[in-house]
Description:
The structure holds two protein chains of two kinds. Chain A is mainly β. Chain A is built from no helices and eleven strands. In chain A, strands 2, 4, 5, 9, 10 and 11 form a six-stranded mixed sheet that branches. Chain A has a five-stranded antiparallel sheet with strand order 1-3-8-7-6, with no helix packed on it. In chain A, strand 6 (55-58) and strand 7 form a beta hairpin. The model of chain A has no long low-confidence stretch (mean pLDDT 90). Helices cover 0% and strands 52% of the residues of chain B. Chain B has strands at residues 4-7, 10-13, 19-25, 31-38, 42-51, 54-57, 64-66, 76-78, 87-94, 102-103, 107-111. In chain B, strand 5 (42-51) and strand 6 (54-57) form a beta hairpin. The radius of gyration of chain B is 13 Å and the shape is globular. The termini of chain B are far apart. Chains A and B meet through strand 4, strand 5 and strand 9 of A and strand 4, strand 5, strand 9 and strand 10 of B.
Amino acid sequence: EDKVVQSPLSLVVHEGDTVTLNCSYEVTNFRSLLWYKQEKKAPTFLFMLTSSGIEKKSGRLSSILDKKELSSILNITATQTGDSAIYLCAMDYSGGGADGLTFGKGTHLIIQP
Amino acid sequence: DGGITQSPKYLFRKEGQNVTLSCEQNLNHDAMYWYRQDPGQGLRLIYYSQIVNDFQKGDIAEGYSVSREKKESFPLTVTSAQKNPTAFYLCASADSPNEKLFFGSGTQLSVL
């Protein structure tokens, strides 16, 4: 059973639109939630959210962690074609050992000109 | 420049053949990881290593092997026992376990 669930799995919008990507997780002893952007090959780090840092913002991108709802959203405002990518959500939780992050399946975002 | 280098970018495997994917990092990171990415499946953990000469199986280790003889290097061998090896393989490292991961550019493995 998937511990990290992302929705939607794919999304097509027009340039200039605002999008919201969702990530929910199914463990309560989590330590952090991370967002990555994968344009072609290597995922690049966007944000890390923890109990002490539940909201992060960088330019047009922002992310919020809702610990009560066990979920996070990634917002992108005024989208550009360069935002087209797969957005990956990943979770680290205590009890999972030092075995890296547990990833969701990703949201494939396409921005049309 | 510091980073993670994976090679080759593309690799073809014949049936019954073992192939080795290279991963080298100069970030001085202790922890290194191998993930497999299939379309629509996200990233799944194959093996990880927290320290030199030690490594642990991930969720899908069957048909794969690794070594960690040097801090900088964490090669992955895809053995003939892996019946469905076609996938995109990503290597990652972290300063310490469960910190944010830095990824290489990946190796696309295909079967001839």
